[in-house]
Structures are given as C-alpha cells and as structure tokens.
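Feature request, filed as a ticket because there's no other form

It would be nice if the structure record came with a short human-readable summary line next to the tokens. Right now we just get the raw output. Example of a typical job, pasted below so the devs can see what we mean:
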Amino acid sequence: MIKYFNKFIIVFVLSFSNITCAENKILDCNFSNVNESLQCVLEENKKLLNKLDNLNNSKKSDYKDWKGKIRNTCESKIRYSMGEGAALAKEQCLRDEYILRIKDISKTYSKKNNLKKNDDGFLITSLPYNSDNHSKCILKSDKNSCRKINLINVSELSKVYNFLNSSFGSSVVLPESNNGLLIVISPFSEENGENFINLAIVNNLGVVKNITLNASNNIMINKNYEVIFYKGKNKSKIILK
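Raw output as currently delivered:
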C-alpha cells in the first residue's frame, strides 16, 4: 500500500466554460463465559446468513449439497462430554463454513463479471472511462452505465486515501497504470450548480496531484491513460503521467 503525503499535494485546476462503488469484520467471540461466547457467535452467524441470502445462496445449484456437507462437518465436531461447549463448537464451525461460502460465491461472481480489485482492496473500473456513464450510474438513470462503472462511496475510499475530499460523490478507481499511477476519479458540484470531476493521481512516491475538469460535457479516458475533453468545439487531451 502506498503511503500518501498530504503536504506534497499539487493541485492543477483546469476549468473551461461549457466543459465540465470486503467482508464485514468478524467479532472476537472468545469470552471466558461459554454462554456469552455462544450468544456472540449466534449473532455473527445471523449476519453471515443474511449476507448469504443477499448473495442468493439458496438458489445456487450446489446449495443442497453444501447444506448437507456443513451439517455433517459441524455435527461431527460435537462431543456430548463437552457440555455447554458443544453448542458453541457447532456454531463456531458453522461460522467458519459461512465465511468460506461467502468467499467462494464472491470469488465466482467477481470472476464471472470480470471484477478486479487493486492492491488496497477496492474494485477497479476498467478503461475506457467516460464521465457520462459515471454520472448516469450515480443517478441510476441508465442501468447499462452501471455495468461499466464500479462506484465506491468516498467515505470508504477516504479510510485509505486520506487525500480525498469528503464532499466528493461516489468515486471510481482506475487500474494502476504501467508507470505505477493510482488514479481515483470523483465527481462534485459547486454552489452555482456546475458539475466537475476530480482526478487524484498518486505516483510511486506517494505524491498526489489533483486535476479538476468541468464536466458539463463528457470526459473520456482511454486505455493509454489519455484524458480527452472539449474546450468549446476543440478537442483537448491530457496524458496522465
């Protein structure tokens, strides 16, 4: 993970007239009191089952086989000599199985839908990028646009990337460039209603450069990391480097 230095931020604002989306942490349920530990694990298992429901686990072709497998696996761990600990051992086993199942389903979904994450664990948006898809996905005015954009809440991004402004809208992370650049694209609006996008570019040294463009017209970034936009009727280009 790159270390980011706010004191090295370089801001380039290019404004032109008429140019303008990890598993939840599992609680430590190892208490000295067996019943307290059991209640904690039961609560965690409820959350994990809800997550599995959201992943349509019961509709998977291997669901019945999976249910039978975890039942046999976890019941085999029960020893009646364990007393109160028997129920805890079973629920801990189920918790482990639920977590594995979530990982397997998520991995399959990501592979099927060509979803990839960067080194910091955020879903990347493949190139080419265009700002129209970004804005339409946020507004949910075009479902097809969201197939090309992986929106990430800026509050989640800012936990790792502390150079992002909390007022930014849902952002996207591009694939790392060949020269090691991290690029985060964030939309925002001014009080006068004008819409902008901010490109936060971080090099291997952790130096952050921000480029802000008016987003009243579509802005594109191609696979060569060239930012293409229009100034009036004239096409302009910035190469990200």
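Something like this underneath would help us a lot:
Residues 5-24 have pLDDT under 50 and may be disordered.
Residues 167 and 191 are 12 Å apart (CA to CA).
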